[in-house]
Amino acid sequence: MASPGKISYDTYTPPERNNPVERGGNELSTKQTNFLRIWCRDFASGSSVPDESVTALAQVLQTKPELVHEHINQIYKSHPTKEQVRAYLFAETNNHLQPETRELVKNFVTACRRRYSPTDKRRSVNKGRYCCTFKCGYRTERAFDWRRHEETHEPQDIWLCTLCTPKPFLVGRKDKFLKHVNDKHSNVVAKEIQDSSKVDYVPTADLNCPYCGTESGTWDERCKHVVGHFEDVKRGAKRVRIVREDDEDEDELS
Ligand SMILES: [Zn+2]
Ligand SMILES: [Zn+2]
Ligand SMILES: [Zn+2]
User: Which portions of the sequence form the region Disordered (predicted)?
Assistant: First the structure.
């Protein structure tokens, strides 16, 4: 059998394409296909599965390598979108929330991630080397403000006001939550409901650097890493290359 070498989403075809595997006893079971799907999700690096991994997988599953090849090919053809992956992650990590809260939080997070238009009028000052990695056009001179802005797109903490019914109030910043309570529920001491209103939310941010692809372990690391790129620009680099999947272009950071 000729080695197909690295398998890619686009070019890989099963080695025995002209000699289709007999159906019936030669199909993978649901248990085996589930195993492959999870394996690809957790261990496949980028868009390729090396030949030796396919052989090893076939041994583990006690099946023919060509069936594994064929199934992996199918998995890549139906490669989930970024949104599907995010929805899946959210469901996995926030399963402990009450269904009603979970739905509210999911909608809130989705709305936060939606980009603001670069031309909307909500910013009066828009200068500086620190720029929004969600590409809404925001820029600032201060790293602190930059991070706070990033968290408007990717909230790390969420408060759901326990006093607001039936229309829920959610917010991603403690100072804004306290202000809400002071403004809307003036008979209550804001700090007293701060803890009970905080949602036990597990953030599901994309921790890959949008400039170089480096994956961080935490949001904090990710932010410090990205700030490093802006500091590099300060030290003389002309620009940072944006490598977000959805629209690839370069951001001038001068
Ligand atoms: Zn932004
Ligand atoms: Zn409220
Ligand atoms: Zn980077």
Answer: 1-27
Collect residues with CB below 5 Å from ion ligand 1.
132, 134, 136, 138
The DSSP H or E segment spanning 249 is strand 249-252
Q: How far apart are CA 180 and CA 98, in angstroms?
A: 23
Ligand in nearest proximity to the CA of 212: 3
The model's pLDDT over 189-210, given as tens digits with 9 standing for 90+, comes to 989 999 999 999 999 898 999 9
Cα 148 to ligand 1 centroid, rounded to whole Å: 10
| Rounded Cα distance, 147 and 138, in Å | 11
The number of angstroms, rounded, from the C-alpha of 147 to the middle of its chain's C-alpha atoms is: 17
Distance, CA 124 to ligand 2 centroid (Å)? Answer: 29
- 89, two tokens: 């992650």
Nearest ligand for residue 224 CA: 3
236 or 146, higher pLDDT: 146
Pair 105, 93: CB distance under 8 Å: no
Distance CA 247, CA 227 (A): 21
Ligand nearest, relative to CA of residue 166: 2
Please tell me the number of the ligand nearest to residue 131's CA: 1
Q: Is the ipTM of this complex over 0.85?
A: yes
Which residues, other chains included, contact 113 with Cβ-Cβ below 8 Å and sequence gap of 6+?
134, 153, 154
Tally of CB atoms within 10 A around 96:
10
